[in-house]
């Protein structure tokens, strides 16, 4: 594959991926290692997500937050924050029984298992005062981690969760002994699927890619789109069209609407 067609910083993203993998630590070094791991995840996603906004947009794109950070001006972050997590209530919530549809009591009693959106789970989660504990979604548990480590390309990531990488990074916000394993799986899954995603974007010129794209995570879709944008730009350059001025898609759509409306 022609390296010139790749988005320029994607090779840098792979370098960041290589340092993401956690090394086993013991004793007091565990918390320090987890903090370093979260920083690495944030840096990785900031590099990758920057390439999802390379094409012209009808609106000003706002970059999504990464890791434990969130940007609520970003449409992707708004959608991500509403992903539901399985939680266990560790203390009684008085007069909030209406939040649990299957409950016929006025309160949410201790030990109740339910699902809450990510934004609410993060708001209620405290390390010192156990209000609730967050359980791992199935796709991040050991069974699915084994599948991803065996061959990540066979998994329909969009079906398992359209924000697989972003939500996995957010799960590091909650203390869990499985956090290093989750980060390692995110790393290996991204590496294992990255080359195939970019190769497909470079070899699908003017072809229907809907069947391929619908299996990708939102981050991978952005990378795929960036790869195709680079390919289209290269093809235009070969044809001598790179220096030509073209009308904005907004202008073209406006003209089409005026023609459809007809003369007044």
From TrEMBL:
Residues 146-238 form the GINS subunit domain. It holds the Pfam family PSF3_N. It is found in: Nucleus. GO terms for cellular component: GINS complex. Keywords: DNA replication, Nucleus, Signal. InterPro entries: GINS_A, GINS_bundle-like_dom_sf, GINS_Psf3, GINS_Psf3_sf, PSF3_N. Gene3D superfamilies: 1.20.58.2050. Residues 74-125 form the DNA replication complex GINS protein PSF3 N-terminal domain. GO terms for biological process: mitotic DNA replication initiation. Residues 1-16 form the signal peptide. The GINS complex plays an essential role in the initiation of DNA replication. Required for correct functioning of the GINS complex, a complex that plays an essential role in the initiation of DNA replication, and progression of DNA replication forks. GINS complex is a core component of CDC45-MCM-GINS (CMG) helicase, the molecular machine that unwinds template DNA during replication, and around which the replisome is built. Belongs to the GINS3/PSF3 family. This is DNA replication complex GINS protein PSF3. It comes from Pleuronectes platessa.
């Amino acid at each position: 594959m022609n390296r010139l067609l790749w988005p320029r910083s994607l090779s840098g993203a792979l370098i960041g991926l290589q340092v993401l993998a956690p090394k086993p630590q013991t004793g007091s070094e565990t918390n320090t290692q987890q903090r370093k791991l979260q920083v690495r995840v944030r840096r990785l996603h900031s590099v990758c997500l920057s390439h999802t906004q390379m094409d012209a947009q009808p609106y000003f794109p706002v970059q999504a937050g990464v890791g434990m950070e969130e940007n609520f001006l970003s449409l992707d972050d708004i959608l991500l924050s509403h992903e539901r997590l399985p939680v266990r209530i560790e203390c009684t919530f008085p007069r909030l029984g209406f939040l649990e549809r299957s409950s016929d009591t006025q309160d949410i009693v201790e030990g109740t298992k339910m699902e809450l959106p990510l934004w609410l789970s993060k708001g209620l989660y405290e390390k010192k005062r156990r209000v609730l504990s967050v359980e791992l979604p199935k796709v991040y548990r050991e069974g699915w981690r084994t599948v991803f480590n065996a061959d990540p390309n066979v998994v329909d990531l969009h079906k398992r969760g359209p924000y697989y990488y972003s939500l996995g990074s957010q799960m590091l916000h909650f203390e869990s002994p499985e956090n290093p394993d989750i980060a390692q799986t995110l790393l290996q899954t991204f590496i294992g699927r990255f080359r195939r995603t970019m190769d497909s974007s470079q070899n699908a010129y003017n072809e229907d890619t809907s069947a391929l794209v619908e299996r990708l995570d939102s981050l991978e879709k952005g990378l795929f789109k960036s790869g195709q944008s680079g390919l289209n730009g290269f093809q235009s350059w070969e044809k001598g069209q790179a220096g030509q001025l073209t009308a904005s898609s907004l202008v073209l759509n406006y003209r089409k609407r005026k023609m459809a409306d007809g003369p007044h």
